Amino acid sequence: MSMLTQGFERPSGWAERPALTSRERKAKLKHVALRALAVLTMGGVLAAFIALKTAIYVWHLHA
After folding, report:
1. What is the pLDDT of residue 61?
2. Cα 31 from chain centroid (whole Å)
3. Which helix (H) or strand (E) segment is 51 a member of?
4. Are 61 and 53 in contact (CB under 8 A)?
5. pTM of the prediction?
6. Predicted local distance difference test score (pLDDT) of residue 13
7. What are phi and psi of 29, to 5 degrees?
8. CB under 8 Å to 20, separation ≥6 — which residues?
């Protein structure tokens, strides 16, 4: 078997699974969106903290 086509051969049962209902899909998307928002918020807080520490360092450097 070729290394390039190894991931494409799947059992036939994967296509027969039931589709998510709109309520389940909406809940899953909401969960993903909230998780992404939390990660972005933590990144913003971290960036603001680094900027504040840098500004304090530069302020003391010139004083």
Report:
1. 87
2. 11
3. helix 22-62
4. no
5. 0.52
6. 62
7. -65, -35
8. 28
Which two structure tokens, joined as six digits, stand for 33?
């969106």
Answer positive or negative: Cα dihedral of 7, 29, 31, 44.
positive
Question: pLDDT for 4-60, tens place per residue?
Answer: 666 666 666 656 666 667 888 999 999 999 999 999 999 999 999 999 999 999 999
Q: How far apart are CA 54 and CA 63, in angstroms?
A: 14
- Rounded distance, CA 25 to CA 3, Å? 34
| Cβ neighbours of residue 9 closer than 8 Å, sequence gap 6 or more | 1
Residue ranges of the domains in the chain?
19-62
